[in-house]
Amino acid sequence: MKPSRSNSWSDPDRRLELALRAAASVSGCVVLLIVLFVLWQALPALRDIGLPRFVADADWRPTSDTQPQFGMLPMLAGSGLVTLGAVLLATPLAVFSAVLVEFYVPRSVAWLLRRLLELLNGVPSVVFGFWGLVVVVPLINAWQPPGQSLLAGVLVLSLMLIPTIALSAAVALRDDAGDLARSAAALGLDRGAVVWSLAVPRASRGIGGGVLLGAARAVGETMAVVIVCGNIVQVPASLFDPVRTITANIAMEMSYATAGHRSVLFATGLLLILVTGFLVAASRLLSRRGARA
Amino acid sequence: MTNREQPAATDNVLTIDGLNVSYGKVPALRDVRLTVPRHQITAVVGPSGCGKSTFLSVLNRLTDLVPDCRVSGRVEFDGIDVLSRGCDLFALRRRVGMVFQKPNPFALSIRRNMELPLREHRVPATEIDGIIECSLRDVGLWDEVKDRLDKSALKLSGGQQQRLCLARALSLDPEVLLCDEPCSALDPLSGEIVEDLISRLRERITVVIVTHNLAQARRLTDNVAVFWQQNGAGTVVEAGSVDDVFENPQSEIASAYVAGSRG
Ligand SMILES: Nc1ncnc2c1ncn2[C@@H]1O[C@H](COP(=O)(O)OP(=O)(O)OP(=O)(O)O)[C@@H](O)[C@H]1O
Ligand SMILES: [Mg+2]
User: Fold this and answer.
1) Pocket residues for ligand 1 (CB within 6 Å)?
2) Which of B231, B188, B162 is CA-nearest to residue B22?
């Protein structure tokens, strides 16, 4: 007889709790292990080459035997510009869709639009990339060759961000849409005033949280940008120049990278983890504050 | 004949006749008849769920916001057919203001709370500051907030928030003010202040106030309408001056209901 132990194990609630705790700690540990592994792999590069050379080196020639060069500036610029462009383009469109869903269309249509946004959110990025390659790239090519470009990346990526940002914005707007509408209507305010003077400013933190979440998604997006951005290592001089992002760089070179080169790729991966982690944390913070205010 | 067309001794600003309201298929009000005399305070009393709030929200067409709410009958406000399709809601809601049970300032600064409705109603910008000060003075809030007009209205106490909402409604210079239990969410002291303010309004405007507090109704108002649930829908079972309804109620329901406040 082991009364205390058999007690805790025979209680189904307790058993479920333990199972959940175990599952949670396993997934937490796995994430931690991955980060540690990346850090471990990146360490040689950080130690032997050093952060300064990543921006100071003029070229990206990681495989050169005589004088390897590790200038990441073009990739940093690529990731930064694609993300910035996509966020700038997607945010207004996403906020408009969220406002439309929450305030303007009848309930049944709103339901449909929400499901559509959720569906769009779940489309694999390779599909977006493929679509971009067959539709967007030829259009840009006809206008300003070669087509595969910063602009193509921005367009395709912004389409992917719209549902991410719109769904967060819709949640933030929905918070007290009903009460607000009543209070405002009783003062004779029309829907335009309710939306643009009251609801959107009030939801601005939540919307900002959605935008940061979108940015995190954009920074980490790989497949779609590999397909449509052209992947040439250069700091783009115009929207029509091909660019390579950090993610694309990893995806394209990891299969043949060895030793120092490999470690550099891991270092850039570490950077991605830090940036997206920061964006997600900031997004959380902003949304949570918004909900409390 | 011209004599007959002179306004009667009690001139009614609102005339409600045969009003029915239902939410979906569920009736909330049936055959409500009531007249609301100008520049007096009319209390709407009755048990919970008998349709008092619903009645109030018909008068400024807030019922429009409830998707499946059906309203029929006649509501006349100063010669305007309130329930008609062509009724200008923007103008109606400026002339018929409303204060809710829960203070509902917008999550904006005190100044923006006051400014926004005035702007929307195209009050000239040069007059806005004056109106804001004047309205806040009316509710005794000016001295308390004049140094923090740009701070969030949500930082005010409940009683201050409610007075702000009252000031916001009054700033549009309404002819009728609808109040849905305006004091019941406040502490007794703040409630008394708001009650006092409302009682002083009768010089200027007509007030329709829903209250659960019969003592308050008696103290504060000129007329009383007793709502009651009958056959599954609310209706007016007794209406008249405070003295008539409280001292000499005609219906049994009303006499039982007001008995609590007597003696
Ligand atoms: N938006 C709504 N949708 C559906 N039914 C509603 C809605 N609002 C009110 N009702 C119903 O209509 C009836 C009257 O409600 P109302 O809020 O007008 O009563 P009340 O007299 O104000 O009650 P209380 O004193 O509790 O505030 C109730 O049965 C209520 O359930
Ligand atoms: Mg009510």
Assistant:
1) B 23, 28, 48-54, 66
2) B231
